[in-house]
Amino acid sequence: MDDRIRSLALAAATGAFVATPTLGAVFGAGEQTRRYDTVITPPAYAFWVWAPIFAGAAASTVAQCRATGRGDPVSRRAGWPLAAAYAANTAWSVAAQSDRFRYTPYLLPLATACAATAHIRLQDAGPARGALALTPASTGLLLGWTALASTVNIAAVTVPGKPSHGTVAACAAGLLAASTALATGVAASRRGALPFALAAGWGLLTTALTGSRPRPVRLAAALGATTVALAAAHASTLSGTGTGTGTRRLRHLDARRRRHLDRDARRRSRTP
Questions:
Q1: What segments bear the compositional bias annotation Basic residues (predicted)?
Q2: CB 177 within 8 A of CB 227
């Protein structure tokens, strides 16, 4: 019963997560965020990253809600945090569409925290099988983008108006701090590290390539993108396909078991 309730909640949250910003843009004015542009906001084309995020979330939810996936450890560990992350993102979209942007600096970090919880819990969920392998990847994409977007969102509210030298320096420093935190998270990940890094790195790289942004911001974004890329490379060498740590533990245990078996065999061979 618990698996079924979780699956229903996840399906409903995912549907709202995908439909709210999509239908709002089609039938309404959409998310009114242009007037909240900041010196660290990625360019408009960077936000197409939501297409793979939405697609990944939908595919992951389908896999988790199928009868064969409901009881899987991946679904049980990540289902509720992901449902909460999708619900918080939906609330953010509603606030942005209804001219309640003042609430968004609270909603997006909440969504990021929920996605981070799912990502962390997936690290010890065991290897994902079949379509459930989409869950760590889609969670990493969502986390990487919303974590970076939270920094931009906070800057949009706390640093309004025309930027000055001081605010540009503060925003660049904040972007560097966020990049360092993102790189640390990527480096510590065994599953979903590459999508995590791709989403965050995409936002940073596109900002670095935007000529209209102040030079300190572009340099900070470029340094941040490089740091995230190095963290992803580090994570890949440690984890391989994302299960390297677990694989090494199993190999270590197998080696110990073989040594014990060999020792027992030698003892038996000495026994008359």
A1: 248-272
A2: no
Residue 242 has pLDDT above 50, yes or no: no
- Contact, 127 vs 184, CB < 8 A? no
Our CA angle for 216, 219, 224, nearest 5°, is 125
Q: What is the pLDDT of residue 237?
A: 83
Judge whether 15 and 92 are in contact, CB under 8 Å: no
HEC secondary structure over 208-230: HCCCCCCHHHHHHHHHHHHHHHH
In 10 A of CB 212, how many CB atoms? 7
CB of 202 closer than 8 Å to CB of 46: yes
C-alpha span between 112 and 148 (Å, rounded): 9
The predicted-structure confidence for 48-100, as pLDDT tens digits, reads as follows 999 999 999 999 999 999 988 889 999 999 999 999 999 999 999 999 888 88
CA-CA distance, 224 to 216, in Å (whole number)? 12
Which region among 44-48, 159-163, 188-192, 208-212 has the lowest average model confidence (pLDDT)?
159-163
Nearest to 191 by CA among 51, 31, 60, 65: 60
- Residue ranges of alpha helices (H) inside 36-192 are 50-65, 73-97, 104-122, 134-158, 165-187
pLDDT tens, residue by residue, 192-231: 999 999 999 999 999 999 999 999 999 999 999 999 999 9
Q: Where are the domains of the chain?
A: 2-241
Q: Among candidates 61, 41, 4, which has minimal Cα distance to 208?
A: 41
**Integer Cα distance of 45 and 37 in angstroms:** 14
